[in-house]
Design brief:
The complex is a heterodimer of chains A (116) and B (115).
Chain A lengths: L4 E3 L2 E4 L5 E6 L6 E8 L3 E9 L2 E5 L6 E5 L5 E5 L8 E8 L11 E2 L3 E5 L1
Chain B lengths: L2 E3 L4 E5 L4 E3 L2 E3 L6 E6 L5 E7 L5 E3 L5 E5 L4 E6 L8 E9 L6 E4 L3 E6 L1
Parallel strand pairs in B: 2-12
Antiparallel strand pairs in B: 1-4, 3-9, 5-6, 5-10, 7-8, 8-9, 10-11, 10-12
Classes of the chains: A mainly beta (116), B mainly beta (115).
Chain lengths: 116, 115
Amino acid sequence: DSGVTQTPKHLITATGQRVTLRCSPRSGDLSVYWYQQSLDQGLQFLIQYYNGEERAKGNILERFSAQQFPDLHSELNLSSLELGDSALYFCASSPRTGLATGYEQYFGPGTRLTVT
Amino acid sequence: AQSVTQLDSQVPVFEEAPVELRCNYSSSVSVYLFWYVQYPNQGLQLLLKYLSGSTLVKGINGFEAEFNKSQTSFHLRKPSVHISDTAEYFCAVSDAAGGGNKLTFGTGTQLKVEL
């Protein structure tokens, strides 16, 4: 158990819908990261937040957005869902970021999203 | 931009045999390297990391990896595998561009341990 929690575990929804994935980082960790894992794209970095502020962005679609709240939990919002958005979405956390890089990330169990 | 290449998509091996999973990276900045393992229907678990110092790093479950700067490699090894090591293994490099800390992953190597 990494200490990172994600809800829900599974999500099945229809095309065009909007969903929210939730992540709670390990106690004390300030950074939260979101990754997408799919068969064709592999593991792709989406976005990073540090202490409530966006710190880095990957190939995140405009239909996707995220935020980190004052209690440090984070939500990933996916809208206008398409079949191709079906994937495993992982959240990870780490204690520090910025110039002091290299700190490992601890991953949650993931949310499996199925778009039908 | 940093990248990671895992040369083998699948590696079959018999139980108690040694194994090496290969990883090559490209990076224009200081390198921080990681190996993660993913068991079926689970998240990624950190096996080991290289941040600095000794080029031979030891991780959990008897795994170790060697950082080789001249060959830009970070191969994962285990002297004797167990059936429970069957999983997917990902090599990753930390990218600090822009002040963030994202991980760039390889495509993964499926290790299948057979009796």
